[in-house]
TrEMBL record:
UniProt protein name: ATP synthase epsilon chain
Family: Belongs to the ATPase epsilon chain family.
Coiled coil location: 89-132
Superkingdom per UniProt: Bacteria
The species this protein was found in: Gracilibacillus ureilyticus
Pfam families in the cross-refs: ATP-synt_DE, ATP-synt_DE_N
Keyword Cell membrane: yes
Length: 132
C-alpha cells in the first residue's frame, strides 16, 4: 500500500479525487503528515493549506472542516476548498481589507470573531496562491 486515495468534498460537490503518496495538513491540534497505512482518525481542520504530495502534487486552501483518515483513504470535508488556479486574488484581497477594517472598528464579540475568521480565510487563500 504505497498510495492514498484523497477525496476533497465541499457543499458545492467534489473538488478532487486522486491518489497521492502523502497528505500534509493542519488539524486544530497541530500539523499532521499522513502516509498510507495511517491509523483511522477523525480531526477538525484549521483554516489552512492541505498539501498533497506525489508525482502530481497539489495545494488546496481549505476553510476548516474535517479530516477522516483510513489506512488507504483520506477524506476532507470542508465548507470551501480551492486550488491555487481557482482562487480569485482580487476577491481575497478585498475580503482581507474588509475584515481588517471590521477588526479595527469597535464591534461586539460575535462580529469580531466573524471578521477574524474572514481574515484567516483571505490570508490562507493569498498564501496558497503565492506558494503555488
Ligand atoms: P468573500 O467575503 O469574498 O465571499 P469568504 O471567505 O466569506 O470570502 P467563503 O464563505 O469562505 O467566502 O466561501 C464562499 C464560496 O466562495 C466558496 O464556494 C468559496 O470557494 C468561494 N470563494 C470565496 N473566496 C474566494 C476567492 N478569493 N476565490 C475563489 N473562490 C472563493
Amino acid at each position: 500500500m504505497n498510495t492514498l486515495t484523497v477525496s476533497v468534498v465541499t457543499p458545492d460537490g467534489p473538488v478532487l479525487e486522486d491518489t497521492f503518496e502523502m497528505v500534509s495538513c493542519k488539524a486544530e491540534s497541530g500539523e499532521l503528515g499522513i502516509l498510507p497505512g495511517h491509523i483511522p482518525l477523525v480531526a477538525p481542520l484549521s483554516i489552512s493549506a492541505v498539501r498533497l504530495k506525489g508525482p502530481n502534487p497539489q495545494r488546496i486552501a481549505v476553510s476548516g472542516g474535517f479530516l477522516e483518515v483510513r489506512p488507504d483513504k483520506v477524506t476532507i470535508l470542508a465548507q470551501s476548498a480551492e486550488r491555487p488556479d481557482e482562487i480569485d486574488v482580487e476577491r481575497a484581497r478585498a475580503a482581507k481589507e474588509r475584515a481588517e477594517r471590521r477588526l479595527q472598528a469597535k464591534q461586539d464579540e460575535i462580529d469580531f470573531r466573524r471578521a477574524e475568521h474572514a481574515l484567516k480565510r483571505a490570508l490562507n487563500r493569498l498564501d496558497v496562491v503565492e506558494n503555488r
